[in-house]
Amino acid sequence: MEKTPHVVVLGGGFAGLELCKALRDRPVQITLIDRQNHHLFQPLLYQVASAGLAAAEIAHPIRSVFKKQQNVSVVMDEVSGVDLAEQTVSTTGGREFQYDYLAIGLGVKTGYFGNDHWAEFAPGLKSLKDARLIRRNLLLAYEKAEHCEDEAERKKLMTSVVVGGGPTGVELAGAFAEIARDVLKNDFRKIDTTEAKVYLVEAAPRLLTMYEDDLSDYTRKKLTDIGVDVKVDTMVKDIREGVVDLGDEVIESANIVWAAGVEAPAITKELGVEIDRGGRIIVDTDLSVSGHKNVFAMGDIAHCIDQAGVRVPGLSPAAMQMGRHIAKVIGDEVLGIKLGQGYPVRKQFRYFDKGSMATIGRSAAVATSKGLKFTGFIAWLMWLFIHVLFLIGFRNRLAVMLQWFFAYVRTQRGSRIITWG
For the chain, how big is the Rg over CA atoms in Å? Predict the structure, then answer.
């Protein structure tokens, strides 16, 4: 009896899901391994962190996605090792999986540029746990400030610092400012939340360096207009409990968030393959790992220069394209062998840039698409539509639309719940 090729997919992110779905009609057996039981829509994590959405509204059970796709088995476990020579994957749960093809899409984690001890005082934003922690820190600080008699301590409790001027940092800073200025202003009796301070610190000379100067300037102006103190060309020297040291200035804050860097998980260093400075796996233009044609890397964990010489960005559309490309490579090879036609010439990956966008606050965003630039309300509508479109599951889309409509009309945020779990 002919053996069915086994495809092991590590990670249930955008790339992993697209790969599995694209192989639905191919004669393969797929095992999808993820340490969580849900797919997380990471572009909206900041909305959970800033009390705009509940966690369940940006997550969807992985098993539910594949309940009708019989060639996919989902395993909730954490990958502990990969043996490329033996073609096996081991997990912390003591299981071992033999593969014919392997696709690594484990994503990235928050990186502190060698200052990992800062993580205790400045959490990043890569998971639902991170988002709930940031939301708790933010809301709890205002609760404590309401009953604080010490003026210096109260000022510290009402100060937030976001480190990193990329899309996540800009979105968080804008959301924190709007919460203080609009959402909470009538909730308390002893404090005036409009007096809260929000700082955005960026080491580069401008925000959103992936965009052109005019969009960066627009972003800075809009943030300043809603009360964010933007500090560019400013390096963080140290972060301690409740303190961000900028060298010539020290900011005391009860809510510090790190949005300045990411790095690949440690497992990439153990594979014995070529990686970049951030630990990302360097792939060939067909997305395979050099020297291992049956092993692929995709999504944020892959360092990819595509067929046209373009560095593929760490964006969800790019990850989805990578997943579909790998599925085509595997599917074509499996069919070619099954039909006795041998291995076909592999198609090389070419990234199709659909544009990028970042929201600044209520009714304001920046976006680029096909050489065109958009700002303001139009860009915000584009951002809203695209993000809702990519959400998995009709229930999630409907919930998000209702929440955003409520927030826009009433300037409220419906998920201002402090949780401890």
Answer: 23
